Amino acid sequence: MPPRNKVYDLPAEIRDELNERLVSTGFQGYSSLAEWLAERGFNVSRSSVHRYGQDLQEEFEEAMGDVRKTTELAKAMATDQEDESGHLIDATARMVQDQLLRITIAMRKAEQDPAKAAKQLGSVTRALAEIGRVSLGQKKWARELRVEAAQEAADKAEAAGRAQGLSNDGVAALRAAILEGLA
């Protein structure tokens, strides 16, 4: 197993700034980034910064690809339907759950302080719970909306049936047929 990259030993604020610089430069200029780190008192070789930058670039491009897919999915669903059944929220919840899983894996790879990792895992767990609540709430809302729409349709069908002289049994059968799938 190769030794751990020295970039992971940098303080979080320096590593965050390095990440920003890597992204803003298009993942180039590794020599100048190694010099920038040296000016701050951190002895990290150009090749270590390069290896770290390549890994970050892969993650960045994968994340950006996911964002593009999500954006296209949202556009398609917005133009295709009103999304009353909540497919967009459901798909988004699945993607967020996937990202939270990736964050958890990345935290383990970074070999952080166990207490800090536990605190972050707690945050991830709370986020997953919140996604679950949002998803359940959306599904409940969608069901209530379907019931309300079916009730409205049944009321209109009943009124139209009575206006046409339909018997009470006929009106009841028509209403039951409309509301049948909701039980």
Task: Explain what this protein looks like in three dimensions.
The protein has 183 residues and is an all-alpha fold. The chain has a domain at 1-59. Helices cover 78% and strands 0% of the residues. It is built from six helices and no strands. It has helices at 12-24, 30-39, 46-80, 87-109, 114-163, 168-179. Helix 3 (46-80) packs antiparallel against helix 4. The longest helix has 50 residues, at 114-163. The radius of gyration is 28 Å and the shape is elongated. The chain starts with 11 loop residues before the first helix and ends with a helix. InterPro entries: Phage_Mu_Gp27. This is Terminase.
How does the SSE layout of this entry go?
Elements lengths: L11 H13 L5 H10 L6 H35 L6 H23 L4 H50 L4 H12 L4
Protein name: Terminase
InterPro entries: Phage_Mu_Gp27
Pfam families: Phage_Mu_Gp27 (PF11985)
The level of helicity is: over 70%
Beta strands, count:
0
Uncertain segments are: none
Strand percentage lies at under 5%
Query: How far from one another are the termini?
Result: 59 Å
What's the helix count? 6
Biggest pleated-sheet summary: none
Determine the mean pLDDT: 79
Taken from the alpha-carbon principal axes, the silhouette is elongated
Order of helices and strands: HHHHHH
Category by helix and strand content: mainly alpha
